Amino acid sequence: PSLVEHLRGKKHQRLRALRAERRAQEQRSLFVTGFARGTSGAELADYFRTYGDVATGVMDKEKGAYAIVELREAAGRERALAEPQHHLAGHRLRVRPREQKGFGSSQVDTQMSRLVELLELSEAERRVRHLLVTLFQEVFTEFFPGCAVLPFGSSVNGFDAHGCDLDLLLDLEPTKSLQAAATGDLPASEDSILSDIDLAVTPAPEVLELVATVLRRCVPGVRRVRAVPTARRPVVKFCHKQSGLAGDISIDNRLALLNTRFLQLCAEADERVRPVVYAVRLWAKQQGLAGNPSGGGPLLNNYALTLLVLFFLQTRSPPVLPTVARLRDMAGDEDRAVVGGWDCSFPRDAASLEPSTNTE
Fold first, then answer.
1. Which ranges in the chain are annotated with CATH 3.30.70.330?
2. I need a surface site. Which of 19, 57, 252, 269 has the fewest CB within 10 A?
């Protein structure tokens, strides 16, 4: 009897009506990607008015990577879907029917896009990482004036995943320049390190121990701090109690910053890149090809898998991503960089790349 009463009640009727309205909205809505960064919802709405009256346009607020455009009539949506190509401000738009969330779709590309949504960091997780970087910057500036705390790696390269480490570079070059330019001792508080050491000549292991000491004593919530000077890339490891984040701080890893920017460029260059990378990484993990299984040696990590996918996309015919040689040719004067003998010249802005003509 209680079930019958509920089904006849206003609450259930309102829910049924709401679901029906949402289904009707989906039948009138388009999922749009491929537009230029900074494109507004109003610009997209103006474009799609050629196919019918537009009810709403909702932009993806986290990354600006997609938009939902709802027309007032389903016929307007069908006219837009029947158009073979859409272009806005020099960018080719990809226009698809709006799909319900979940893996019920038979479309593989829709499932892969949904996979990215499930695996990538949430906006709240990104905020926590940003706040930690800000906290570290404030603390380290007290001891190393002019320094910069710069995140790199999976947290910011466009291929993030829940629980990924927070990799940081403590850039001390500006601090060394301040020391070199000082005529006498730098003005410092009683806690300052700079009155006691010269960063330009101090061995890296000693600097790492100083960084570890600052982390232990001065950064709230940080624990399990240990310097690892003998690692292939010397770091200070730490854990943040409140967020549960684990991370590394390195002091000489500028190549990693440029690697990160390169991956960001690839992630932004074509909307297919991220879904393919996430899908391959998940598949490799399920097949036992990735990670470091107990009893065995290290296999492919996510970074290696990502590079393999990028190379695959660079070698399609026609390519989905430009080759490294092509990117080097496209780099402007402000993009030129050589680190440790490696030519790291490539455009920093994905908007400067020509869209791929590959339609796979």
1. 3-97
2. 19
Please, which pLDDT band fits residue 193 given cuts at 50, 70 and 90? low
Question: Which tokens sit at 111?
Answer: 């499932």
In terms of Cα–Cα distance, which of 144, 145, 141, 123 is closest to 133?
141
In this structure, what are the phi and psi dihedrals at residue 167, rounded to the nearest 5 degrees?
Answer: -95, 130
Q: Which fold has domain 119-179+193-255?
A: Beta Polymerase; domain 2 (3.30.460)
- The CA distance from 300 to 309, in Å, is 12
**Where do the CATH 3.30.460.10 domains begin and end in the chain?**
119-179+193-255
For the record, the structure tokens of 228 come out as 């690892």
The sign of the dihedral angle between the CA atoms of 135, 136, 139, 142 is negative
Closest by CA position to 115, among listed 52, 84, 53, 159:
159
pLDDT at 100: 53
- Dump pLDDT digits (tens) for 274-314: 999 999 999 998 888 886 555 555 588 889 999 999 999 99
Contacts for 155 with CB less than 8 Å, ≥ 6 apart: 121, 129, 164, 165, 166, 167
Distances (CA, A) of 359 to 89, 92, 96, 286, 306: 20, 11, 14, 29, 21
Residue 249: how many other CB atoms lie within 10 Å: 24
DSSP secondary-structure letter at 290?
Answer: B
CA–CA gap between residue 135 and residue 149 (Å, rounded): 10
Query: CA–CA separation, 268 vs 38, rounded Å?
Result: 13
Token pair of 62, please?
């986290």
Best CA proximity match to 154, nearest among 302, 334, 357, 350 = 302
Does CATH number 3.30.70.330 belong to domain 3-97?
Answer: yes
pTM over 0.70, yes/no: no
- φ and ψ of 241, to 5 deg: -60, -50
